[in-house]
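[SOLVED] Need 3D model of a two-part complex

Original post:
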Amino acid sequence: MSAVIEVEGLRKTYRRLGKANTVALDDLSFSVPEGGVFGFLGPNGSGKTTTIRCLLGLVSPDAGSTRLLGAAPGMLHTVIRRVGSMVETPTFFPTFSGRRNLRLLAAMNGFGNADVERALEKVKLADRAGDPFKNYSLGMKQRLGIAAALLKDPAILILDEPVNGLDPAGIKEVRDLLRDLGRSGHTVFLSSHLLGEVQQICDRVAILAKGSCVTTGPVGEVLASGHPTATTLVRAEPGARAAGALRAAGFDVVQGEGFLRVAGDVEGPAITKALADEGIYLSELRRESVDLESVFLTLTGEATQSCPACGSPVASDAKFCTTCGAPLAGEATS
Amino acid sequence: MIALLLVELRRGFARRVIRGLFALAVLNFAVAGVIVFIVTDSDAEVAAKQAAADRVVRDCLAGTTYPPGSEFDPFAGPVEERFPDVPAFTAPDVGTAEREQFCADRGREQPGEVRRFAVTSYRDVSEALNGLLTLLALVIGATMIGAEWGAKTLATHLTWEPRRALLYAAKALAALLVAVTFYFFSQALELAALAPAASAHGAGSAPPGFWSDWLGLVVRGAGTIGVMAGVGFAIASVTQSTVFALVFIFLLSIVDGIGILVWHDLYRWSLFRNIGAFQSGRGLEPFDFGSFFVAGRSAGSAGLLIMTYALVLLAGGTAVFRRRDIN
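Solution:
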C-alpha cells in the first residue's frame, strides 16, 4: 500500500516578538496509506493544524519534509486538483453568497457550476447557498467548507475538525459521507477532537502530543497498545472477601472502591465459579472495552484522574466517566 | 494564469466596495452633468443676453446713462433714490469717441454674463479627476488584498493554487485592472455627462491638437492609476490590512515632504512629486532651494521612475508573500 501522505522529521517553531517561542511540531513523522479514513488526534495545541498547514504549503517548517500524493510542497500545484481540504473554520468572502464563493474557487481549477451544485447538494446546503457567507451559522460554514473540499472529487481529503458546530444529524451525515468516501477508495485524513466519531469511522489513527507522534497504526493496534492487558470488571459484596476468593483461585485482582478489576484474558465463567464456590454472588461482571479516548488520554498524558467506579483514566475536566458513565467527583458534589 | 486572473477580476468586480465606487461615479457625474447643463447658456439665452447688451449700448450712445452698478434694472426706482451717496456722474458727450468707448464698457458690464461650456474645459475636468482618482487607486489596490487578509481567504485560495508568486501576480494584476477600468469608466462618464452641455451649450470648437493632448492626459492618468494601485496593493500585502497600508502611505507622504526639506535631492526622487510630474505631462520643474539647486525631470523619466517604484514594491511584496506563513 503506497503512502499518500508522508511526514518526516517535521519541526516548526513559532517565533513572536516579545513572546516566548512556541514549538508546534517536534520531529514529527508518520505516513498515511492510500484509501480509508485516517484519524489524526491530539489535544489542543499538539500541532495537528500546523501539520495540516505544512502539508498544504501554508506554513514552512523549520526542518523535515512533507509529501502529499508524492509531491513536495514546492510541487503541490501538480497534485492540488486531487487534494480537497478544509483547515480549521472555513474562510470565504463574507459578503459573497456560499454559491458565489464556491463558483469562484471552482473556476480557479477549471470546475464548472454543475460541480458546485453537486457539492452543495452533497452537504445539503443548496437551499441556503444564495445567502451571504457572513449570515451562515458555524455548522453551515463547516458544510460549505466541506463542499469546497469535495468540489474537486479529490483523491485525498484533508479535513481539520469538520464536524465542529454541526448538529447531531449533521455529524451523522458527515460521518456517513466520510465513511463512504473512505470505502470508495478515497483517502480521508481527518483531524478531530471527537474521539468517539474517529473510532467509529477511522481505519487508522495517529496520535500527537506536544508536536510529536506518540503512536500510529490501525485503530485496533492502537487500542491494544494503550491497554495491552485485557481486564474484567467485577462487582460483588463483600469486596474484600471476593478479592480474596479470586486471588486464591489464581486471578490477578486489583481492588477499587466498590469494584474489583481482574487482569488478563480470563473467562467469565471461571470468575463466577470461583466466587460461587465461596458463596459470593456477583452483581456485575463485565469485560472492559478499551476505547480510543482512554488510550488517547493515557498516551497524551491528558488523563489526570481515574474513575472511582471503574478505574479508567479520564481527563481532569471530565464530568462523567467515558467508560462506565459514572459521575466523577466534581460532578457528584455539584 | 489567465483563468486565475479572470477569477480575481470576477471577485474584484463583485466586491461591494468596488460596485459602490462605480455607482458613486455614475451618481456623481449624473449630478455634475445636470448642474453644468443648467448653469450654462443655450444659444437662445446667449442671443437674449447679447440683445440686452446691445440695447444698453444703443441707449447709451443715444444719450441715456446710468451710474456704474445701477444699470439695466427695469424694476428699480430712480437712480437718485437708490444711490443717494453716489456722486453726480458725468458721462462723456454723445457723439464723441470717448462716449463710444464708455458705452462699449457699459455693455460689457451687464450682469447677465454669458456662460458657455468650452470644449477645452474637458481637459481641466480630466486633470482634476486624475488627482482624485490617483488617491482612489491607492485605496482600490490596498483594499483588493487587504480585504483578503481581513477575511482570511488567502489560505483557502492557496489550497486551490499553491504557486504563491502566480497567485500574488494574478491578484496584483486584477487590482491594477480594476483600478484602471474604474479610471476609464470615470473618464468616459465625464465625457458623457458633459456631452449635453458641450453640444447644446457649447462654445467654440476644440483647438488643433486638443483631443490628442486630452488623450495623452488620460493615458498618462491611466498609467499613474495602475502604478498607484500597484503601490497600494504591494504595501497592503505586507501590512496585511487596508487601513494600515493607507496610514503607511499617508505617513510616507509626510516623511516625503519633510525629507525634501532636509535632503533637497529627494525632490527628484519623490514618488508623489513624480506622479504629478508624469500625470500633468509637464515633467518635474527644476527647483531652487536658495543655496541648493535640484535639476528637474522629464515627464517620461518621471513615469519610468514611478513605474520602477511600483515594480520594486510589488517584487518585495511577492518575496514576503512567498515566505510568509498563512494562517
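Edit: Strands of chain B lie at 117-118, 202-203, 287-288, 293-294.
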